[in-house]
């Protein structure tokens, strides 16, 4: 009776996924050193056949080892908690998928035809609308040739900044050719600092956007707005795997060397006392020169220009 009351109360392991018989046998094995034997069946009031079945279930869960010995309580509870978390995550993923169904139904009602698993969308504005409708998701993977997309509508940047601040995970691969100009590199570093993590790759790729690992948009031509919207799970999984492999091989944005313009600005910063003189020597406006200096200071994590020069020397940039 005491055991039954304890198992039925708040201390029960049933909340972590064990059945009543599984918990009873696990507790018995903790109290009685040695593997389960006929005495265990008698003590628990279980037929030997059922006892063997329950023991096999506990071994499959990893709570009891192959020799029939139980894991220590802390290890067993940790294992069960992790299993429960994984199960809950899968359940939440399935529930989250229901919102994709709602979106598909809404699209069918709007278009008057079924939504295809792989669909060519010619209108760039329609691609943009669909992407924006999905950007309440938890993760994006992006591979693009240029940091700034022609599909971004007005107000997109402030909305994306809010999504990143609220915890949305975002990763972006950028081609090395896209970072040849200081403005583009600064743009990539700006978003990298806001949480849209950037890496740089020299590998050829087609522009790609994957949202929540379930929907992919593939640009058909880099200079065109037409795209394929892909919902077929096998194809999307293949694209996710491709992105992950490229991401693993790509270089960190913070590890890039200086561009030619940045090197000139940094040298002018170290050698010239006045911004006006430095800007004139580089044939650029004072405003542009100061923007470069501010970007370099941020990249170096420097609070002052003197500190920026010191850290640049430490890195071998001067």
Automatic annotation (TrEMBL):
Listed SUPFAM superfamilies: C-terminal effector domain of the bipartite response regulators
Family annotation (SMART domains): HTH_LUXR
Residue stretches making up the HTH luxR-type domain: 255-312
InterPro entries recorded: Sig_transdc_resp-reg_C-effctor (IPR016032), TrmB-like (IPR051797), Tscrpt_reg_LuxR_C (IPR000792), WH-like_DNA-bd_sf (IPR036388)
Record PANTHER family: HTH-TYPE TRANSCRIPTIONAL REGULATOR TRMBL2 (PTHR34293:SF1)
The protein's name in its UniProt record: HTH luxR-type domain-containing protein
Originating organism: Kitasatospora aburaviensis
Lineage: Bacteria, Bacillati, Actinomycetota, Actinomycetes, Kitasatosporales
